[in-house]
Amino acid sequence: MVDKLMIVEEQLRKNLNKEYPEFNQGDIVKVYYKIKEKERERIHPVEGIVIRTKGSMQKRSFTVRRLAYGEAYEVTFPYYSPHIDKVEVVKKSRRRPRRAKLYYLRRRAGKKAALT
Questions:
Q1: Which helix (H) or strand (E) holds 37?
Q2: In this structure, are residues 75 and 32 in contact, taking their beta carbons and an 8 Å threshold?
Q3: Contact 26/10 with Cβ under 8 angstroms?
Q4: What domains are defined for the chain?
Q5: Max CA pair span of the chain
Q6: Which carries the bigger pLDDT value, residue 53 or residue 3?
Q7: 53 C-beta neighbours (distance < 10 Å), count
Q8: Helix, coil or strand: residue 83
Q9: What is the pLDDT of residues 66-114, one digit of tens each?
């Protein structure tokens, strides 16, 4: 039974081959996301701070928080989504955050919401 599970996990690893740069919570990333509108397809960039990474293997995901025109919104991306074109790390956080989930940034606004 355990051997079958190991074989399935190996096949999943081979199929889920996405090469993104390494990023952690607190880093500012730019995600290029494919959006289909009627017949045409365009790429929409979302730049923001990573507040959470979750899961492992094929269920892995990360959440990006972005401030746009005074409004903050969060987008959760599946790590192995076929709709993600590429991910760029714009800025690494200078110091490692002490928490795994940076939910406290939701209560902050403007420059106070940035990790320096």
A1: strand 28-37
A2: no
A3: no
A4: 20-113 (2.30.30.790)
A5: 54
A6: 53
A7: 16
A8: coil
A9: 888 878 888 999 888 888 888 999 988 877 777 778 878 777 766 666 6
> In which residue are the tokens 């990333």 written?
29
C-beta pairs of 21-25 under 8 Å, 24+ apart in sequence: 21/87, 21/88, 21/89, 22/89, 23/50, 23/62, 23/87, 23/89, 23/92, 24/50, 24/53, 24/93, 24/96, 25/50, 25/51, 25/52, 25/53, 25/93, 25/97, 25/99, 25/100, 25/101, 25/102
Query: Could you read off the pLDDT of 52-75 as tens digits, one per residue?
Result: 888 877 788 899 988 888 788 889
Q: What is the DSSP letter of 17?
A: -
Compute the Cα dihedral for 31, 35, 41, 42 and give only its sign: negative
